[in-house]
Each structure stands twice: as structure tokens, then as C-alpha cells.
Amino acid sequence: MNGFDEKTLIELCDEKYVHNGYSTWKYWPAEIYSFGKHIRRYGFYLPVLPLNIYTDHGAGKITTEPALHEIESEAYCQFYHSPLIKENWRNFSSKPGYVLYSPFVFYRKTHKTEKAPDAKGTLAFFAHSTPAIENASNVEEYIEQLKNLPEEFQPVSISLHMHDINNETYKIFIKHGVPVYTSGHVCDYRFAERFYNILRNFKYTTSPIIGSYTYYSVEMGIPFSIYGNQPKFINKSDPNVKAGEYNYYDEYAEYRIIYDMFHDLQKEITPEQKELVERDLGLKEGISRFKMAKILYISYLKQGNLVKDLLYPFIKYSKRPRLLFKQIGYELKEIFSLVRRGREK
Fold first, then answer.
1. Cβ(154)–Cβ(122) under 8 Å?
2. What is the pLDDT of residue 338?
3. N or C: which end of the chain has fewer CB within 10 A?
4. Would you state the pLDDT for residue 343?
5. Are 111 and 130 within 8 A, CB to CB?
6. Helix (H, G, I), strand (E, B), or coil: what is residue 188?
7. How many Å separate Cα 237 from the centre of its chain?
């Protein structure tokens, strides 16, 4: 577990190397982190057709209230991982609302990705910044806290969001000898694959805040711990979050309940944690694959343009036909692999 070298970190987060599918992106939350790829596969939906649905952009919940951009979207319907937010959706919109079966978990299960038998150490997830929100925390102080974790949790590596690769925060971790990983650009359709290929090698995970990684770790059988000082976020321009300095713990009562459930070092997954994660990943109430297919195709009939959409991939890759065939080959290889696993089951 030596981490990625600097060249790999930069290239994984460089948009010129991104593979983001074969269709236009109508609504970004349904596409990023490779959601779009796995939603299409879950719903037997053609990869060249745009998704005319809107989703939350991560697992679990910070609050049960929908975000402003979700309420204002023109999509046919809204999906949430958590049934609690879906139930509250009816108080904000007359559009249909549904529970989303986690695209990440669907990927993990269909690819039979499990924690490695020799998994060891801890993967820490840094509370990431965005172009609109700065994490003004003392990074070196956080590194010192990670190095002070008990021996059972060592060695520690860090997973960074693409924004913290691009703003060169990664250099501070490398300077202090902490191995650095990243799942790459958020628009890349290989994101889930990269995420699990990293995660599966670790015995524990941690972060100063609750994130999607909390749910994905626990669902895979990896205990997650809240550890380290709460990050100092400064919102400079995101309209969906309180302006200025803020933290989730002070702002959201629902978040505090989940935070306290994972606070301190966790060596085992409790029944309460498991129940929470399965609920808020949509594993219990997420709609079936056939119902998803029905919704996806109905939404397309209402908002799609078949001729334009079928031509799109050829126009998109007109100057890079080799790349198109390379990516189609990658997709076919993955599909054949899934078929083979199904026969072996």
C-alpha cells in the first residue's frame, strides 16, 4: 500500500483522460461518480440515451430536506438513496419521487468485489473541498492525528477527492510520508471501479466527517470511524449551503445522530450501523430493476430526441474514433465478464 505516484494522481483527475459515457448529460447528479453508468445497467437502459431523471449526488443523508437544485430541476422525477428524504420530497414537489438502489452497491455485488483477505491498515477520507467551498483546516495537524492512531489501525493512507489533487493538497500528505490514493475525476465512468479497487485493501476506514464512503465501507464489511478535528469549511459561492464558515454537525440534527453513531474508533460494525447503512443506501426500499427500466424509458419518451441522441456518440468521437472503439471494447469486456460471473454463480 504505497499509494499512487504524482503522475498517476494528476492524470486520474485530468478531464482530458475522462471517459464519461456515450450520451449527453442532462442532469449532473444522476451521472457523476459513475452513477449514470450503473443506473443504466440496473435499469436495462441503452447507454446512448440520456438520463431524464434527477438523483441525490451521494449516499446517505445530511438532512431530510431536498437541496435547492433538486427542487428546481426540470427532470421527470427525483431519486434519493434514503427513503426518509423520499418521503419528505412530497412536501416540496408534485413530481414523482423514488428510492434509489445504490448504484455503487449494485456495481460491487455484480462484480463480486469483496474486502481482500489480507486487508490491513486504515484508509482515511479527507473532508474534500470544492471550487465553491474551501476546507481551511490545518492539514498537517490532521496528518499528525492520523499518525497517532493506535497500532492496530496502522499504516494509514489517505484518499483524496479530485479537487484536492488539483489544488495540490496531496503534496502535503506526500511530504509527510502518507500514501495518497484517488478514485479520479468525478465525471469518469470508471469511478466506482477505482473506488472499490482501493477500498478493498483496507481493514478500517475513517474521516472527520460522514460521507458516502461511510456507507460504502460499512456495507462492504469495513468498520468506519469518525476521527480527527471537524473540518473548517468556508462556503464562498455554493447557493445550496450556508454562506461563510459552517460545519455539518452544528447545522443539521439528522447529521449529528449519524455522526455520534460512528464517533470514536470503531473496530466492529454494530447492528445499528448496519441497519442505518442498508436503509440509507436504498438496499431495503430501492425500486426493482424492472421498475427502474419502466421509469427510465417513460422519462425518455417524455423528454428525449431519439435521432439526435443516437447520433451523439459518433459526433462526440468524430475526431477520436480510435478512442470510441477503445471505450466500446472496454464496455464489452466488462459485460462479458459479468455474464461469465453469472454463469459461475
1. yes
2. 64
3. C
4. 57
5. no
6. coil
7. 22
**pLDDT (tens digit, 9 = 90+) per residue, 190-218?**
999 999 999 999 999 999 999 999 999 99
Residues in the chain predicted with pLDDT less than 70, given as ranges, are: 129, 131-132, 134, 136, 237, 240, 319, 323, 327, 330-331, 335, 338-345
Q: How far apart are CA 205 and CA 227, in angstroms?
A: 10
β-pairing verdict for 122-125 and 156-159? parallel
CATH class of 113-271: alpha beta
Taking the alpha carbons of 33, 39, 44, 48 in that order, is the dihedral positive or negative?
negative
Place of cell 474521516: 207
Residue-range domain boundaries for the chain: 17-107+284-344, 113-271
DSSP secondary structure string for all residues of 56-74:
-SSSS-S-SSPPHHHHH--
Specify whether the CB–CB gap between 164 and 126 falls below 8 A: yes
Phi, psi of 109 (to 5 degrees): -70, -40
Which pLDDT score is estimated for 127? 86
Picking from 93, 97, 69, the residue whose alpha carbon sits closest to that of residue 83 is: 97
Q: What is the pLDDT of residue 229?
A: 86
Nearest residue to 220 via CA among 166, 178, 274, 259: 274
Looking at residue 172, its pLDDT comes to 95
| Strand pairing class (244-246; 233-235) | antiparallel
**Is residue 265 a contact partner of residue 228, using CB atoms and an 8 Å limit?**
no
Q: What pTM does this model have?
A: 0.91
The three-class DSSP label of residue 50 is: coil
Q: Residue 224 and residue 206: Cα distance in Å, rounded?
A: 5
Q: How far apart are CA 277 and CA 210, in angstroms?
A: 12
